[in-house]
Amino acid sequence: MEEIAALERALRRAAPHTLPQVVRAALTERYGAGGVRLRLADYAMRSLQDVESPPWVTEPVPVHDSPQGRAFGAQEPYLATGAKDAPMRLHLPVTSRGERLGVLSLDLPPGTDLRAVLPELQEVCEALGHEILVAERDTDLYVLARRATRLTLAAEMQWQLLPGRSCARPEFALGAQLEPAYAVFGDSYDWSVSADDLTLTLANGMGEGIDAALLTSLAVNALRNARRAGLDLAGQAALADQAVYAQYRGRAHVSVLLLRFAFATGEVEAVDAGSPRLWRLRDGAVAARPFEAQLPLGMFEDTVYTPEHFTVRPGDRLLFASDGVYDAVSAAGERFGERALARALTATRLLPPTQVPGAVLRALAGYHGEPALDDDALVVCLDWFGRPDGSTPDASAADAPAPEGPAPVR
Questions:
Q1: What is the pLDDT along the chain (410 residues), one digit of tens a residue?
Q2: Known SUPFAM superfamilies for this protein (predicted)?
Q3: Measured between alpha carbons, how far is 384 from 315 in angstroms, rounded to an integer?
Q4: Helix axis angle, 2-13 relative to 19-31, nearest 10°?
């Protein structure tokens, strides 16, 4: 384990753009590994992009139907079988605090005892994932690796606004996805986790392009400012409402759904100020969860918001969607949110929450058909585990990923 600690120190001290080289050198020296390559998932979660190649030069690896994609999707090591005396090709997920980043691939010498080296290699990937998130503040290398094509300026602004695409704690696990990933306008989400609760925000700014991105950015940052000032949900909505109104004087508004989940009890406080909606999967049955609709942010001056409450139970799955999802229509004119969304949620009940948004959006695309959707589509999936005894976990448990069963090499 001293070697792992030494690698972690080397990663912390390395120049931000040299993390793959540091890991490659360490794995070659300790395990005789070759062919070490780091790939990161693109914004649409459809491909894995090589980190060290110039953007769009190296052929990407598809997330679906590839060995690397199997490791990424299942979040389990995947061993690609070959000839008995050939190097052992291993693919390992790179994840940090539930945020799925990519896959580290390497060749191990024939006959390597995987049971002995696999725990160490998984620690290497965990340390690498953490350092990538830190290094992104100082280099564009890892951001560029997430692009299968160029982003519009509005999409650039929106992606920089997001906290991540997934998050996991002992009490919950969630995943989120935006489409079209490279031209998103006004849909956004945000979350924050404390010792006692999870705050989740879904936003939909009106308009298109830069106007929508600027509007949503103002609203999300106003909500963050209010949350960090210690205001409750109603106070957060009121402050953001004032900020949007002060800037646009009622000419533009932002639809927002604000929620705070208490870890100890499962009680949820909610403020519905617009269009994002919620469906719940409990005991195999899907039901929409209606809210008391209130005015979107910025429509009028000094709007007063009133929270409401409900409770989630361990085992509940919650799906949040923007109007670009549930209002999309089929060729027959039926809205996706009427029946098809519930079918998609039921069909994906065995998938982890990180994979559900993408699966629902693929079902939406097939349901809508051609032409492509003319609005943003946002899906967030939350699995609730809670704290059965209402206790507060220690620091190590709080940082651990949510339980998803064993992770065998396949």
A1: 688 889 999 999 999 999 999 999 999 999 999 999 999 999 999 999 999 988 888 899 999 999 999 999 999 999 997 777 889 999 999 999 999 999 999 999 999 999 999 999 999 999 999 999 999 999 999 999 999 999 999 999 999 999 999 999 999 999 999 999 899 889 999 999 999 999 999 999 999 999 999 999 999 999 999 999 999 999 999 999 999 999 999 999 999 999 999 999 999 999 999 889 999 999 999 999 999 999 999 999 999 999 999 999 999 999 999 999 999 999 889 999 999 999 999 999 999 999 999 999 999 999 987 777 778 899 999 999 999 775 555 544 444 444 443 334 54
A2: PP2C-like
A3: 6
A4: 160
Q: Look at residues 104, 106, 1 and name the one whose alpha carbon lies nearest to residue 9.
A: 1
Calculate the dihedral angle through the C-alpha atoms of 107, 108, 110, 115, rounding to the nearest 10 degrees.
-130
CATH tag for 151-384 (out of 3.40.50.300, 3.40.50.1980, 3.60.40.10, 3.30.420.40)? 3.60.40.10
Q: How far is residue 178 CA from its own chain's centroid?
A: 10
Q: Tokens 């935006």 label which residue?
A: 178
Q: List the structure tokens of 176.
A: 């989120």
Domain 1-145: give its CATH code.
3.30.450.40
DSSP H stretches of helix in 287-391: 323-326, 340-347, 356-368
Q: How far apart are CA 374 and CA 264, in angstroms?
A: 41
d(CA 108, CA 74): 21
